[in-house]
Design a protein that fits this description.
By secondary structure, the chain is α/β, with parallel strands linked by helices. The chain is about 50% helix and about 15% strand. The protein is built from 6 helices and 5 strands. It has a 5-stranded mixed sheet. The longest helix is centred in the first third of the chain and has 35 residues. It is globular and about 45 Å long.
C-alpha cells in the first residue's frame, strides 16, 4: 500500500482498497444471513424425524447461537422425560475459558436443575463428538446415553480417537450413538471455518 503524500495515484489506490474491503464484508454478511435462513429451514420439526433427530435439531440451535458470537459452533442439550433440562453452546472465546465447551455448560445447567451431580435417566445431544475433557465429564455425571452429530477426527474421544464413554476400566459407561444428523452438524462447522478463512484474507 502506498504511503500518504505519494500523489493522486496513492489516494486512488487507498480508496479502491477500502471499497473492495467493504464489498467483501457486505457479501460475507449476506452469505451469513442466507446460511442462518437455511439453518432455520433445516431445523424445523420434521414429522418423519426420529426422537434423536428432533433433539439434535435443538442442539443445532445452540450451535447457531455460538456461530453468531463467532465461536466454534457446537451446541448441546440434555433431555429428561421429554424436556430439555440443560443446554449450552461453545463460549470459550467469550469467557476466555478453555473449558467452556457446550457440553460442560449443559452438564452444569442440568445438574443445577435437578439439584444433583448425577444425571440419571438423561440423554445428552451434542452436535460434535465430545473431546476427552467433555467425554470424561459425561462419564462422571453418569449419563446413560450420549448422542452426537458430526465425528471429530482431531479430538473425538467417544469413537474416533478414544472410547472414553465406553472404557470398561472406568466405573461407568455411557451408551453412545454417533452420526445423527451428521451432515447438518458438519455444515455449520464448515460455515464457521469458511467465515474464518474469509476474515483472514481480508486482513491480509
Amino acid at each position: 500500500m502506498r504511503l500518504s503524500g505519494e500523489g493522486v495515484s496513492g489516494i486512488k489506490y487507498t480508496k479502491k482498497t477500502r471499497q473492495n474491503q467493504r464489498s467483501r464484508s457486505h457479501f460475507a454478511q449476506i452469505e451469513s444471513q442466507i446460511f442462518f435462513l437455511y439453518l432455520d429451514v433445516m431445523i424445523e420439526k420434521n414429522p418423519r424425524a426420529t426422537d434423536h433427530e428432533y433433539w439434535m435439531e435443538s442442539a443445532l440451535r445452540e450451535a447457531a447461537l455460538a456461530l453468531q458470537r463467532d465461536e466454534s459452533p457446537v451446541g448441546a442439550v440434555i433431555v429428561k422425560n421429554g424436556n430439555i433440562i440443560g443446554k449450552g453452546s461453545n463460549q470459550t472465546e467469550m469467557l476466555n475459558d478453555a473449558t467452556a465447551h457446550a457440553e460442560m455448560i449443559a452438564l452444569t445447567a442440568a445438574a443445577a436443575h435437578l439439584g444433583s451431580k448425577w444425571l440419571e435417566n438423561c440423554t445428552m445431544y451434542v452436535t460434535l463428538e465430545p473431546c476427552p475433557m467433555c467425554a470424561g465429564a459425561i462419564v462422571l455425571a453418569r449419563l446413560p446415553l450420549l448422542v452426537f452429530g458430526a465425528y471429530d477426527p482431531k479430538a473425538g474421544a467417544c469413537t474416533t480417537l478414544y472410547t472414553i464413554t465406553n472404557d470398561t476400566r472406568l466405573n461407568h459407561r455411557v451408551h453412545t450413538i454417533g452420526g445423527v444428523l451428521e451432515q447438518k452438524c458438519g455444515a455449520i462447522l464448515r460455515e464457521f471455518f469458511v467465515q474464518k478463512r474469509g476474515k483472514t484474507r481480508n486482513v491480509q
